């Protein structure tokens, strides 16, 4: 490469289109909440990344933040007004109440705790929990719901809205299908085994199917051994306490999933949080931990474990794995990688972030993932060295007290994995992975061109589109449904209060036509609702810029 | 001013100079923590050695050599290559290989595929889930029910949704591990009372009452809960629910009832312990059960009044942040409920079989039966322990192996020894299902007698 100074912490400048790409030069990339210029962190970090690592976290103009707070303020004022009217009997109380016989018990819910639920969430409640009645593939059928009393209760009209484009389900590789050939083995296993297990792994619940699945998972990931569990959430919350205990230190990312947070809390270890994907913050914590030891006794920590996720589901960002691995090796910490969204979705052959960055699975101590997202099944796994998995077989809470995975679900995972690995004799698996990559890049590129603010890495199939204002959340979701597109919107408390967003999950099963339909609808709606906040929209003539990706040579 | 004496002016001048000096001198800092130089820090980092990620596990650890079942874990089960009669899976109503259940699951598989690809809030709610919730609520005669996708997560998410830091929970010592984890996640004050001992519980409640009188303001906002199980998994006996209801109203404590084993077993129609005692179900604030025992499916549910259950839809962690139950399992559960409603006499049959084997197992030398006579999950504990828990476990393993070699599949009850609050003694779990014939029950009893004779004497 001609110009080494063009590499700055993995962000590449497209030098030969300088005049048009001033947006990149002027560097309005939001780094962890602060608008900064390009972070120059030396070339040493740049060589860890074998390909470009571009993440966007653009900050919205100031007026948007002001209007958002104003929106919440108005909502709160009306909320107080409504509460007042309800308390004085001027308005009908729709919420369920305590029994007469128990009126003198201590109230179960504090009135204030539910303020947000009663007054703000309730207004736009029809955008969540929408029931569907078909397979959650690229298109699904929604059951029509109407409300007669402003979302307090719903009733079904009986009509089914057919073929709504599904941009909300985690169906990255399109394995949520009902094709008879695809499900042939699952049907056979269901007939043979039935649906239940009625026992735990250590008692009478280990079936030959589990052994087969575990061997296949280990082979898929390239590790020594693996263990599977019946629920992805429970995999985290029941195994982290088995691995760490009192006297250990957990360094967890700011935006980790609830299951990781719960597992960390249940373990009894000390938890310290580092800023999202920020390696300086992590390194500082590591150094301080080793130098100063435990808080008051100054004893050394028994072990330090870093909890990160592969793809963060609310931001769409990918973890900076090469830097974390080099930090972990330097400071002798352990790494627990939760690949719930990234397994199957990134990487040249779908093996997750480890393959995406070209690293070896031995670099990560504990590889954890779920089968719900890319494999269209349910459950989770933990993989790694044989000692680790043997320890989990004996000491994991799930192995002793919780039911094991059910056989038809295990068979679905086996057939999906075999398809991905090419063991069923076709190249369908690889095709799906490539299709997902193409769809992701196309979708993100078009959204950038239109001028929306999108968060996250260019290669992540999770695409958050920022809405900011609370009023737009409900409007966006219901208008998209009118156009026959189902989207997912998230607000407070899953995201920071000013950053409500719509989250799209691109799937390999989406065709170009479906994506174009969605994009056209978004274009219209973006103009109607004034959602195109980005100051740096590229023109919609892609032939004027060539998106050449300059590869680093090392 | 010039009248003032000279020494006064000089004194003032010195004071002013002193103040100026104090203002401009560096602030007095406490001994800084980073006395260490950079070199020392690097040395500390070099020297630190963590423990290995996992301690080594001995190769002969009992849990590493577990039984592998080939084929479905039904009435006749193939364990480690041998065909046995299944006395170890909680398949109480024999619905695991019921043809109707399987065909309902097949139909659902054709229509919905396997997974739901999303949590309940984001297009993971299927019409089968809604139907199952309605059916469960109707069956249990409550207002509403909520489904979880994993049995363990049900009670472990339900308790922290209501009980927070500062609240008080009275829980039985023999509560199962899922309840313990739920209590740990809730960060409330836990008060354990002796198993099924109402006097002990009343004592604790009285103590709490006197505490409340000292601080009535705090008492007005501290919520109180009682968590008990219908049929305890660890001891096989039932909780004295009528007395608990009396205590509930006397001391204003809410009851959470965990009915994993008693749902589909107790009561005339299988509605659980409330039907068994004839108690109005509205008196219980929350009933939680898992569908993995009697309903032979996967998952769990909570039922009760809408006032209580609706709260979990936004604050139950296992509900909001986890994918929903695969539709084929929900369809299987609905079909199982249909069968339960259509054949209410299976509960009588099951109870008769439990009584029979309970009687037959009395009098085995060396082993005592722990559990009620109508409980389908019994424990066989050693009458005299031989010193250490390890040796007890080995002895019981020999008994279990003897039985397995002769065609009866049994298992020891497994616990995490270091994590349990009140570790039960080692025992063999005997599970009675409705599919076992009387000859098989007698065979099992006589085999256990033989095994005990040969191993323990």
Keywords:
heterodimer; A: 554 residues; alpha/beta; Aspartate Aminotransferase, domain 1; Aspartate Aminotransferase, domain 2; 7-stranded mixed beta sheet; 17 helices; globular; disordered N terminus; disordered C terminus; B: 457 residues; 2 domains; 16 helices; 16 strands; 44% helix
Quick structural overview:
Chain A: This is serine C-palmitoyltransferase. The complex is a heterodimer of chains A (554) and B (457). Chain A is of the alpha/beta class.
Describe the 3D structure.
- The complex is a heterodimer of chains A (554) and B (457).
- By secondary structure, chain A is of the alpha/beta class.
- Chain A has two domains: 50-166 and 427-536, Aspartate Aminotransferase, domain 1, CATH 3.90.1150.10; 181-421, Type I PLP-dependent aspartate aminotransferase-like (Major domain) (Aspartate Aminotransferase, domain 2, 3-Layer(aba) Sandwich).
- Chain A is built from 17 helices and 20 strands.
- A seven-stranded mixed β-sheet of chain A has the order 9-15-14-13-12-10-11, sandwiched between helices. Chain A has a three-stranded mixed β-sheet with strand order 7-8-18, covered by helices on one side.
- In chain A, helix 10 (321-331) links the parallel strand 12 and strand 13 (334-338).
- In chain A, helix 3 crosses helix 4 (115-121), helix 5 (184-193) runs antiparallel to helix 14 (407-421) and helix 7 packs parallel to helix 8 (258-267).
- Chain B is an alpha/beta fold.
- Chain B has two domains: 73-96 and 345-456, Aspartate Aminotransferase, domain 1 (Alpha-Beta Complex); 114-342, Aspartate Aminotransferase, domain 2, CATH 3.40.640.
- In chain B, the strands form three sheets. Chain B has a seven-stranded mixed β-sheet, with helices on both faces. In chain B, strands 1-2-3-14 form a four-stranded mixed β-sheet. A four-stranded antiparallel β-sheet of chain B has the order 12-13-16-15, covered by helices on one side.
- In chain B, helix 7 runs parallel beside helix 9 (241-251).
- The longest helix of chain B is centred in the N-terminal third of the chain and has 19 residues, at 6-24.
- The termini of chain B are far apart.
- At the A-B interface, strand 6, helix 5, helix 7, helix 8 and helix 9 of A face helix 2, strand 1, helix 3, strand 4 and helix 4 of B.
- Strand 6 (131-132) of chain A pairs parallel with strand 4 of chain B, so a sheet runs across the interface.
- Chain A: Pathway: Sphingolipid metabolism; Lipid metabolism; sphingolipid metabolism.
- Chain A: Its EC number is 2.3.1.50.
- Chain A: Belongs to the class-II pyridoxal-phosphate-dependent aminotransferase family.
